[in-house]
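Good day; I would like, with your permission, to put a structural problem before you. The record follows directly beneath this note:
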Amino acid sequence: MPGFEQYTARAYPALHELAQRLLQREATPPCAPHDLLHDAYLRLTSAAPYLSDDAHGYRLYALTMRRLLVEKARWRQRARHGGHLDRVPLSAARQTPSGSSAEAPSLVAEALTALERVHAGQARVLRLCHLEGYTQGEASARLAVSLQTVKRWKRSGQATCAAYLRADGLG
């Protein structure tokens, strides 16, 4: 009857392999294998599990890692985090359609105006960071909000503007 810590130390290579196999099934892996394994370890240590044998420990880790992956996938799909929007790689988002480079500044202004009606903070952050050249830290100080808030507003504002541009057939 192995102890939980002893089992984890002894079986770490096999558990790391398991984490790699689980993450290979994901279209876009949410984390590295060792991060997944360490998250599972932290979750299991809080429960202080009793292991009857090595196979029991392996199954317990496998189940915990699968549950963590499901939680991460559900989190990514939440509307609050932009799950209802189509994800676009940054390289594709920066490309402008041919022949529309002259329209780009007016489209950006139009997208920001539309965003202002939905969320003024996101629009201000995008204006400061993208049009006026402020860093996120400077925008945070200028708007008197935390850096994390600026990062969140910038990320969700970019997703909203990209969705707006796609709706106009430009994305």
Remarks:
- Residues 54-77 form the longest helix (24 residues).
- The mean pLDDT is 81.
- The CA atoms of residues 45 and 148 lie 29 Å apart.
- The chain is about 70% helix and 0% strand.
